[in-house]
Write a structure and sequence with these properties.
With 422 residues, this protein is mainly beta. It has 1 helix and 24 strands.
């Protein structure tokens, strides 16, 4: 994999016309009590870098992160992660888009990050298709190929079509993931302990999905259907619609059918589980450009019980307030959240504040708990290339009697023309 770095990056730098670089430095400070008498202080810093080198329709993208705790030594520190590193060749022969390297996939039912290749083709004006295949990246996201690529891979394809107000797609997804083996103590028939290697089987997903969208005049309709090939059954069904009246009033409704998506060979496949069916209703009303309101209701039906959710919200200029209430099998909750920010000095300084409160019970027999979260901070932008953020956070719940943290962030954006080789 390291040889691929040289193979990709050296020619790209030499031939690149444009360099786009964004650096983000963040620091998080908090204190943790391991026991009532023992506490530890933490200062965890993160350095993120987003890099784009491009010339014409060819670009190199990289997104990486280096993190370390400077107060307490933690296992695995420092941690170097590569989220993206790939070559993108756009509009090849006015028909193809190519990707090669480590990149995220969003292709219908197929979602994930792979070390592999992706091809998108424009077949007709109204029809396109993509296909992708590769190895799952290592769990620690290091810059290397997975140690067991034959049991950790992902592949799939999608066909998309669009004609006027009508659009849709059909997608296929196949993923295998095998956990690493490990050793554990076990007891033999006489009760004597011995060390045994635990070798897990590869968990597998193999899915088909289709979705359709239709928009005409004031009406919107969307539907989706997922099918599990390995288990020979439908795992998800969704249909939703909305009516827009007078550009201010919107009514929406939807129905969801979900069967828990459990991979083949997973330990969770031996447990009993059942489907859920959810009905959603919502109303959105724009009172003025600075004032919007919405209310929503949903009912989730289980095998022999129900759970209900009610939400009410307001957007007032640069502030928003949301009220939520939950009832039934999934627990009881009364909550409120509010956020506000206000641009000042021609958007150079933006103070912000947030408050969240919740009172909840996990079941009818359980005690009632209360959670409080508060944040206060601001963003300072002296120019378009620099920004500084600071935020103080306070949390109180049944786990943390009093938790106070400070978050710091620095952003630097850089763009220039290179042209090292004309």
């Amino acid at each position: 994999m390291k040889k691929l770095i040289i193979l990709f990056i050296v020619p790209t730098i030499l031939l690149a016309q444009n360099l786009n670089l964004r650096l983000t430095t963040t620091a998080y400070m908090w204190q943790r009590y391991e026991t009532p008498e023992i506490s530890t202080n933490h200062l965890r810093a993160y350095q993120l870098a987003q890099l784009t080198l491009s010339k014409g329709n060819v670009s190199l993208y990289a997104f990486m992160n280096l993190s370390n705790d400077f107060r307490e030594k933690l296992s695995g520190d420092p941690r170097f992660r590569f989220y993206n590193f790939y070559i993108n060749w756009r509009n090849l022969f006015n028909r193809f888009n190519l990707k090669f390297g480590r990149f995220a996939v969003y292709s219908g039912v197929g979602v994930g990050t792979i070390d592999g290749a992706y091809v998108n083709a424009k077949i007709f004006k109204f029809l396109s298709a993509n296909v992708y295949a590769g190895f799952l990246m290592p769990a620690d996201q290091k810059f290397a190929i997975n140690d067991d690529p034959k049991n950790n891979f992902m592949l799939g394809a999608q066909v998309k079509f669009s004609s006027g107000e009508f659009s849709g797609s059909l997608s296929y997804f196949n993923r295998h993931r095998k956990p690493k083996s490990y050793h554990a103590l076990r007891a033999d028939s006489l009760g004597d302990p011995f060390v045994q290697e635990i070798n897990m089987s590869s968990s597998q997903y193999q899915l088909l999905s289709s979705d359709l969208r239709y928009e005409i005049s004031i009406f919107e309709v969307y539907s989706r259907l997922d099918y599990d090939i390995n288990k020979v059954k439908f795992t998800r069904g969704e249909i939703s619609g909305a009516i827009n009246l007078m550009n201010k009033f919107k009514i929406s409704a939807g129905y969801d059918y979900r069967d828990p998506r459990v991979p083949v060979n997973s330990i969770f496949s031996v447990f009993n589980y059942s489907v859920t069916k959810e009905l959603e209703l919502g109303v959105h009303y724009t009172i003025s450009p600075m004032l919007r309101a919405y209310v929503g209701f949903s009912n989730v039906k289980y095998v022999d019980d129900n759970s209900r959710r009610i939400v009410l919200g307001f957007d007032v200029g640069y502030a928003s307030v949301n009220l939520a209430k939950r009832l039934g099998y999934a627990g009881e909750l009364d909550g409120i959240s509010a956020q506000a920010y206000y641009p000042m000095f021609n958007n150079r300084f933006i103070p912000s504040v947030g408050l969240n409160y919740a009172s909840y019970k996990l079941s009818e027999e359980s005690s009632k708990y209360k959670d409080i979260a508060f944040s206060l901070g601001g963003t300072f932008r002296p120019n378009n290339a620099l920004s500084f953020d600071v935020q103080a956070q306070y949390l109180q719940n049944k786990v943390y009697k009093s938790d106070f943290r400070v978050f710091l962030k620095f952003n630097y954006w850089f763009f220039t023309n290179l042209g090292l080789i004309k």
